[in-house]
Amino acid sequence: MVIRLEPEIPYTFAPGQYCTIGLEGIERPYSIVSSPHEPYLELFVELVPHGALTPRLWSLRLGDPVSLRPRPKRVFTLQERSPSHLMVATVTGIAPFVSTLRFTLHHGDRRFRFRGCRARATRTSSRTARNSRWRPRTSPTS
Fold first, then answer.
1. Distance (Å, rounded) from C-alpha 4 to C-alpha 42?
2. Cβ–Cβ under 8 Å, residues 72 and 18
């Protein structure tokens, strides 16, 4: 699920950072999907059926308030001094990379190449992993 928040005060962050949101006194960190230039703060939230917070978040209605800690934290921000970055993620873990991609494309930065792949696995074994077929998809920005 995508949650779009409209903070009541300006919320400054860098692509790849996360924020902490809460409801009814329970707080959890979520990576920010949106780019700093976008008007909303977007988060990907995967439902954890017996979790303390996500079932409550999934039952929210448009306009319901949630708490938001005032400062984001750094985790997956790009280090400009590094010449290359390898980013691997699944499910909602892709959020900081989406934020970075949105930011990069918005600012016309053409230094990066983005690649992705899909694989369909029927069983988990080292033999299957070695023999699995996957097709890389390349989307160069240059």
1. 5
2. yes
Residue 9 amino acid letter: I
Of 12-16, 17-21, 136-140, give the lowest mean pLDDT range: 136-140
| Contact predicate 124/78, CB 8 Å | no
Kindly give, in sequence order, each residue whose CB lies less than 8 Å from that of residue 94, ignoring residues fewer than 6 positions away: 44
Residue 5: Cβ within 10 Å count:
18
Residue bearing the bigger pLDDT, 83 or 11: 11
What domains are defined for the chain?
Answer: 1-113 (2.40.30.10)
Phi, psi dihedrals of residue 48, rounded to the nearest 5°: -105, 105
Q: How far is the C-alpha of 97 from the C-alpha of 89, rounded, in Å? A: 8
Per-residue model confidence as pLDDT tens digits over 60-103? 999 999 999 999 987 777 777 776 777 777 777 788 888 888 88
Q: What is the mean pLDDT of residues 45-70?
A: 94
Number of neighbours of residue 90 by Cβ within 10 angstroms:
6
Written as one letter, the residue type at 41 is L
